Structures are given as structure tokens and as C-alpha cells.
């Protein structure tokens, strides 16, 4: 029923603005952020956006993804991953066994050559422990890598190299001038030589970590280039000279136990040096050529897939094997004291049971040492 009063028309709603895509909001936010960053500048009059980018890059570098050395998506990658684990374990086990064998034998500890063996074994143990990181995981141990070990892991390999070089020089001195050697190279002086190159190595590590990356690369490049050439020439020359002197002196000495000990010690250090050069010469030549040409020396993805850096680790396995194979007292100590005491065997023996159980009794398992 109409009352005659006009009904006002419904007010039309204003049209809604069209929805913007999400990228448009990002562009607006970025433009406003850029306008704000242009206003605030630092003391060097650089836009704050540059500083934000640098902070973002630093944060991205700190977020390290500890993935395996290779993606475990194929049989070959899995075998490479297991090989690096087995290599690190073998390095630690063999060198620790030789280290303990020398420590428990007082006669071995009294000779200077075994002090250098202790140094080599200890540095190789540290190298094996570090290889669980640099070899098993996806790590590129270079100066500008966020996953680098700050030059510590390669230093342990370098210490093994210096120990073998010092041991070879020690044997050369002992064979060429035995009377002067017994007067000059006492036990304390031998320990001072070992301590000196350990301190020198870690002083270089500290210097490389304190200076800028460019300075560290130049210093290490020049030092590596010169040092590799001289040490390789010296080691090869000492090997040849030591072999000739040992052959001349040993032919003049009458047959005796001391003569056989001298022969075995000289041949042992020559054999270790030959295997050492075979494992280290490829990477030495590679680094020398890279420094001479001026190109980067890191051509592989990481440490665990680089054959030039795997060879020195394999040498860390061969060195204690050669020590044990070439030295009879060390071998007897290793098999007769170290490994024999660590090995156990299960044996079942009858034990009298409770009253009323008769002669059957119970069976218990006991552990006894071989």
C-alpha cells in the first residue's frame, strides 16, 4: 500500500580499484625503499642500499650448507663418499697405531729418526681428522671460500712434508758424518728442530689469516713457488746422495746387527721419500705452473673430488705402512703389544650353577686377551 512518500534511490557504491598483482606491490615497496635509502648515506656518501647488499651477501656466506662431497644420487657418487670416509679412517687408525707403538717402546724413543716418525704420525692424524670435514663434505678450502679451514688443514699436510724432509737430512748427516752426528744431534736438539718447524708452520697460518686475501695470495704464491722447487730438488738430490754414501759405507763395514740396522734405516727413509715424491710431485708441478702462468690453481669443485689433493692423503696411509714394513722393532711392537692387547676374543666356558643344577651348570661368555 503506497503512502505517497517517494522512496529515495539507493546510493551507488563507488567502483573498486582494480587489484594489483603481487609483483606491483614488490615494485612499490622497492621504490619506496630505494627512495629512503637515497636519503640516508654513510660517512663515505654511499647509498644505504649498497651497505644492505653487502650485509646480505655476508649473511648468505655464513649460511653454510654442509652437504656431502657429491650428491648421493648415483652409485659412483656414493662410492666416492664412502671412499673419502674410509681414507680418513685409515689415515687416523694406521698413524695412531704407529704413534702408540713408538711411545710404548723405550728403545725406539731413544733414536732420533723415530722422533721424526712421531711428528709425521701426529701431523697425519690431524690431517685425517680434518679430512672428515674437507674431504667428506662439500668444502672448497680456498682463501675466499666461506667453508675454508683458515689454512689449517693444508698446514698439517705441509708438516708431514717438512718432517720427512728433516728426517732425510738427519739420515744424510748420520751416514756421511757419524761421529759428528752423535755429538751434534742430541735428543734435545732433535726435539728443537721438530718444534721449530711446527712453530714456523703455524706462524705462517697466523700471518695468512691476519693480512688481506690479496696479500696472503701473493705471499703464499711466491713462497710456494720457490719452496716447492728447492725442496723437490733437495729431496731428490739427498735421495741419490744418501743411497750412494750408504752403499759405499755399508760395503766396507763387516756383517753385524748394527750394519743391518743402518741399512734398513737408510733404505726405509729413501723408500718413504720416493713414495712421498710420487704422491706430492703432481700437485707441486700443478701449483708451480699455476703460479708461473698466473691462473687459479683450484679447478675442481671441492677437496674430496680433486685427485691432486687426494694423492697426499693416500701418502699419509702409505707412510705408516712403510714404517712398519721396513722397521723390524716397530713391527714387533705393533703386532706384539699394541694390536695384540687391543684385540679380544669371546670364549664360552662352563660355570657351576646353583645347587641342584648338577654338572650342567650355566654357560657364560668371558672376554680374554690373546
- SSE series: HHHHHHHHHHHHEE
Helix percent band: 55-70%
Coarse shape: globular
Residue fraction in strands: under 5%
Task: Indicate the radius of gyration in whole angstroms.
Answer: 34 Å
Distance between the termini: 116 Å
Query: What is the mean predicted local confidence, pLDDT?
Result: 75
Spatial strand arrangement across the major sheet: 1-2
Protein structure class: mainly alpha
Multimerization status:
single chain
Characterization of the model:
The N and C termini lie far apart (116 Å). This protein has 370 residues and is mainly α. The protein has a two-stranded antiparallel ribbon. Helices cover 69% and strands 4% of the residues. Helix 3 crosses helix 12, helix 6 packs across helix 7 and helix 6 packs parallel to helix 9. The protein contains 12 helices and 2 strands; from the N terminus they run H-H-H-H-H-H-H-H-H-H-H-H-E-E.
